[in-house]
Amino acid sequence: MNLTRIKGFADVLPGDVETWQRIERAAERVFASYNFKEIRIPVLEKSELFSRSLGESTDVIEKEMYTFADRDAKATLLSLRPEGTAGVVRAYNESKLHQVEPVRKLYYLGPMFRRERPQKGRLRQFHQIGAEVFGRTDPHVDAELLLLLQDLWEELEVPETILELNSIGCADCRPGYRSALVDFLGARRSELCADCDRRLDNNPLRVLDCKRESCAEIVTAAPSILLHLCADCQLHFETVRELLKDLRPEPVVNHRLVRGLDYYCRTTFEWKASSGLGSQNTVAAGGRYDGLVESLGGPPVAGVGFALGVERLALLLAEGESGRPEAPLLYLAWMGEEAQRWTFTLAHRLRQRGFRVDLDGESRNLKRQMRRADKLDARAVLIVGPDEMTKGKALLRHMATKEQTEVDFADIDESLVEPLGPPTRVIT
Ligand code: ATP
Ligand code: MG
Predict the structure, then answer these.
(1) Residue 135 φ/ψ region, left for φ over 0, alpha for ψ in the -120 to 50 degree band, beta for the rest
(2) Helix, coil or strand: residue 92
(3) From ligand 2's centre to the CA of 252, what distance in Å?
(4) pLDDT band for position 168 (50/70/90)?
């Protein structure tokens, strides 16, 4: 049997994982400054949760979910989560978070699963960092989420991005637009792809989102939803734009920007990378979904959120990325059983103090241990053999200068501060 990764599933190896850690830490910091709390939800949910929240006629539900029957008597259908919002809403409702305080600002991070065609920036297991705000209908919170993302890009020094904004109206004004769009698309039905032919009947707005060039070409002339917005939706949209007027580069209004998922209303947005990602250039996307919480059995509480793709963000940052500066490494080289036992205990004590320490587990000659220390990029090596054990002194070697000094066992901690810097944990 050929034991390899599943197609579309990726490993993140040391060397790359540092970029991920930097993204996650920056996100945690930025979310904290906007007073968001983290929520952790399962990767597996009842399939029904997703079909009810995402809508039956979406690509995700129709063809991308990993779904299987559980081994229970009813063979309950379960799905690996294709996105985070549905699960967060379920948790909000199930734990009755609104009873304590209806306004909640939550964020999550973790893997999502969609069986799409893998390509650069598109995997079958990918990762999202997402935010959901419940209980706020005001446009200020829409703008706040976008400023939060802008802060994250700044913190990570993401190369140029552009924000596209739209409003897709509400239950009052969208039906009017929908019929105008159906009239327009109906006249060119024969030119649409097979998917869009179907969408025209059950979800015509999604034709605007089709990635096929021929469909994209047709919809360039489609009527604009922005001309169909009711007064409330118009005011909401104008306020969001006004609150973001200082963003640089300025947000671009794209009246064809609809979100793939069914539950959106009013504000929708996509944050795109200007270069570096090819056609998979949307890094973050989101919008408002005021009816979703209630439609999943909760109270009538508004919602707005976004999800950003970690793989795509990591691709943008990959060049020149170094990650968290690690503490310098101390390598312990030992010879003989007595020295092994002694360095094993010493390593534990130094690690507890916050030094970064490594050592070999097998008996090897000093030369091979020094080579290993070199490979691991150790800043200093402490050498202990039978002679040193007898004398109660070790040899401390600075790898850069190749200088060696003798240190008393009793003075080891202090002698490390010069080559390695102070330990991160000071035991008093
Ligand atoms: P796309 O238009 O690229 O298919 P989408 O509209 O399906 O994206 P959302 O469901 O809005 O994507 O997810 C938000 C973000 O998650 C995307 O902007 C993207 O960065 C990331 N993302 C979505 N699907 C994938 C995938 N299969 N692989 C990697 N990242 C993804
Ligand atoms: Mg998609």
Answers:
(1) left
(2) helix
(3) 21
(4) very high
